[in-house]
Specification:
Keywords: DNA-binding, Transcription, Transcription regulation. One of its GO terms (molecular function) is sequence-specific DNA binding. This is AraC family transcriptional regulator. Pfam families: HTH_18. Helix content is 43%, strand content 15%. It is of the alpha+beta class and 293 residues long. It folds into two domains: 161 residues, Jelly Rolls, CATH 2.60.120; 113 residues, Homeodomain-like (Arc Repressor Mutant, subunit A), CATH 1.10.10. The protein has a six-stranded antiparallel beta sheet. A two-stranded parallel ribbon has the order 1-3. The protein has a two-stranded antiparallel sheet with strand order 5-6. α2 packs across α5. The longest helix is centred in the last third of the chain and has 19 residues. The chain is globular and about 55 Å long. The chain starts with a strand and ends in a 10-residue tail after the last helix.
Length: 293
Amino acid sequence: MKPILESINVARDASLKIEAYSNDSYCESAGWHIHPEYEMVYVKNGSGVLRIGSKKRYYTNGVLVFLGGNIPHADFGNREHSDNLEIVIQFKKEFLDEKLKVFPELGRINSLIKKSKQVLIFDSEIQKKLWPDFKKFGDLDHQSKLINLLFILDQLSRETPHELLFETFSLDNFKKDEIKRLEEIFEYVNNHYSSTISLSEISTQLGLTPNSFCRFFKKMTQRTFIDFVNEFRINKAVELFNESNTLITEVMYQSGFNDPSYFSRQFKKYQGTTPSNYLKSKYGNLLLQDASL
């Protein structure tokens, strides 16, 4: 089965995306998917199966796995225990090439990240040892999350026991040109979401007609381009609301919407509530009033 290419939305003021999922706030299944970002997953406990590329590995009592970008995989977590927690850390290739690489002191960490292209499954002893450090991500700001991740990577780079799932991993079966084209689309949306996104412009940039572009995007992601753009913009709107108690219309324009009623419908579609109710739940009586959205 061909993997669906997933878009990872990293916050504007962060280099990483770090999410924590419990049995009460479980990650919605992405199915069999692929994305260019590196991914580290810590599953606290319970039994499950890792489906990565052509490999299948069962685990008991949790797992710590680190895989490079563009490696197809299914979801890793499980709901076997009520106190289970799954921490998912994702970052782009630029995090390694443009940020970490400038520090020669981080040589071991750079080597570890590069080795993740073979997929690393770490020993249960180091998994348990690092549990307090993974657990604390939920209480940290962006700067502290970065520092905490570097500490974890430092620990993992120090000859810790691990299994290499692949001797080498080839993308030949997954059409590198198609993956590269999807990456260009995601990057275009990330750079232009706050303004008008021209289907004609992005199609031309990729050497496609608008119709062939839409067919290609639907084939690779199982969703329409406009649906993807709207959800991306709503996620950015949520980021802006979470940063400060601001006017709804300001966030609407900053996230790329121009019609208040359309913005409200799309917000409710992807967040399950209206913008005003979202803000009320977050800021209560301190809510700034500007529209009944």
